[in-house]
Amino acid sequence: MLDSLVDQLTLRNGYYDEQGQPRYTTGNIVSGALVRGFAVMIVGFLMWHYQGDQTTWFITIVLLWGYVAYPAYRQYSIFNSHVEQLQITTLCGQCKHFNPTNQLCHIYDEHVSNTHIPCEGVDWEPR
């Protein structure tokens, strides 16, 4: 159980879930970074309150980079590479109704993946 919690907090799960839908979107990445950043700030405040000012700020800044900013940056770059591949390899990627920030078809309000095209090509319109 602890391993799955750590995997979720550090964004180390697979890119797609069991149903083939994308696990991460831009909003998930940003909200995860905000939650982790809030947790680091609370830990930094508690360290400052109980230990003093000697190394607290340095540790907090290192944690903000190593636990908040860098994992979010890595996940966002992985997300962008998946979206670029999706735009090249699928019909939905070249449709004007495709939203690349969350891999969503605007007409059907469903996520697009390599195996799932919401309209089956019926409502496809070029950009």
In short:
The chain is mainly alpha-helical. The chain is 54% helix and 5% strand.
Structure description:
The protein is mainly alpha-helical. The model has no long low-confidence stretch (mean pLDDT 82). A hairpin with a 4-residue loop joins strand 2 (104-105) and strand 3. It has helices at 2-9, 26-51, 56-89; strands spanning 98-99, 104-105, 110-111. The protein has three helices and three strands; from the N terminus they run H-H-H-E-E-E. 54% of the residues lie in helices and 5% in strands. The chain has a three-stranded antiparallel sheet with strand order 1-2-3, with no helix packed on it. The longest helix is centred in the middle third of the chain and has 34 residues, at 56-89.
How are the secondary structure elements laid out?
Layout: H1 2-9, H2 26-51, H3 56-89, E1 98-99, E2 104-105, E3 110-111
Antiparallel strand pairs: 1-2, 2-3
Search tags:
127 residues, mainly alpha, 3 helices, 3 strands
Number of helices: 3
Q: Give the helices and strands as they follow along the chain.
A: HHHEEE
Number of strands: 3
Radius of gyration, CA atoms, in whole angstroms: 19 Å
- Terminus-to-terminus distance: 45 Å
- Beta-strand level of the residues, as a percent range? under 5%
Task: Provide the structure class.
Answer: mainly alpha
Q: Helical residue percent?
A: 40-55%
Query: Quick check: average pLDDT?
Result: 82
Q: Can you list the strand order of the major beta sheet?
A: 1-2-3
Low-confidence stretches: none
Biggest sheet layout: 3 strands, antiparallel
The coarse silhouette is: elongated
